[in-house]
């Protein structure tokens, strides 16, 4: 790399440091109205309205606490750019994560910063060793940041899907336990409490949330409907609706629970058959492109060698 490139990098870092020093002067750091009013209304609005939670996102908690105001500003900027806070909040509920939208945006920033740092290291290596044009490298760094942000959102979607799969696997057993408890003479609330305390898993956790809501003043029907709203599993929503209708109208609850459990098992069998049908095509790939060529080679290779030996 020539001396001009070293001078350009030196001028870039010097200019960046000068800009940071200027914008951190007291003239440009006047507190906002929200920051000035926060100490007086913190007790009324709660500390969560003005600061991030105590969640640690990186292996460096001390550095993270120092940079927390910047995380807060970056999370707000990312929320304004991307939007969709209501969708993210619902996905967090569906994934069973005890996380706010601001915390999720901070994680997106950290993932994007990690991608940007990796791309920047590769770009500097290429710039020093080969003298590559810096414009494509800058585009690469920005693209790495965007990919990191999108990968965190994709991971949230995958977490929601995995939780739904676990709930579907737990559902028949939980429904049978509820049916047994109701058949033994317990009421709907007592049966739910017994199953929620004995069982472990995502579905039992949702039932514990519903019971907590019922204890705070909501009716059992409303608490069960909130379980269906928090999840995206249609079978679970129908199950909750069936329990609510049985409680309201006084129909035999045990029969409803057994029928719901049988429906879930049948749905699981259908999904297994469909998954097996989809996997058949994937199983043909190694057979056609690996096993079949080797078989043909073993069949024709001895004959080809024999013909070469016989021919004059």
Automatic annotation (TrEMBL):
Annotated membrane topology: Multi-pass membrane protein
Classification via Pfam families: T2SSF
Localization per record: Cell membrane
Keywords, alphabetical: Cell membrane, Membrane, Transmembrane, Transmembrane helix
Keyword match Ribosomal protein: no
Keyword Ligase applies: no
Highest taxon in the source lineage: Bacteria
One GO CC term, this protein: plasma membrane
Domain Type II secretion system protein GspF: 176-298
Residues that span the membrane, as ranges: 6-23, 109-128, 134-151, 287-310
Protein name from the UniProt record: Tight adherence protein C
Species the sequence originates in: Actinopolymorpha singaporensis
